[in-house]
Amino acid sequence: MTTPEPRFDHPPRPLAQRLGAILWPSFFAAGIATMVFFAFVDPLLLRDWTFPEIDLSREAGYTIGFFMFWLATASSSLFTWILLRPASRFNAPLPPNR
Fold first, then answer.
1. Residue 30, class by beta-carbon neighbours within 10 Å (0-12 exposed, 13-18 middle, 19+ buried)?
2. What is the dihedral of CA 55, 57, 63, 69, to 10 degrees?
3. What would you report as the CA-atom Rg of the chain, rounded to the nearest whole angstrom?
4. What is the pLDDT of residue 4?
5. 4, 96 Cβ separation under 8 angstroms
6. Tens digit of pLDDT for each residue in 19-68?
7. Contacts with 77 (C-beta within 8 Å, 6 or more apart), sequence order
8. If we measure between CA atoms, which residue out of 20, 9, 32, 13 comes closest to residue 77?
């Protein structure tokens, strides 16, 4: 007797779709956060407060800030995706249709 294949709530999503669902909203949120943050904070002043010995341009400060915001928002999106995965993928399979 063979064991039937377990049924899932829905088929797994392709990797490109999963990455897009995490990276695209976080990219958008990081762009907004960067604009709002740097509307009030000068990257050169921030550099002088934190790492005065490092010679960074204003553009480098904007770039580093954007990628830091993107990392933070991508982590949030990834955590949400992990929490929303169907439980049936990790618990016992659904009973077969009768």
1. buried
2. 70
3. 22
4. 63
5. yes
6. 898 999 999 999 999 999 999 999 999 999 999 999 999 999 999 999 99
7. 21, 22, 23, 25, 26
8. 20
Q: Is 14 exposed, middle or buried (0-12, 13-18, 19+ CB in 10 A)?
A: exposed
Residue 85 CA to residue 17 CA, distance in Å, equals 14
Nearest by Cα to 57 from 71, 72, 44, 39: 44
DSSP class per residue in 13-73: PPHHHHHHHHHHHHHHHHHHHHHHHHHH--HHHHHHHH-TTS---HHHHHHHHHHHHHHHH
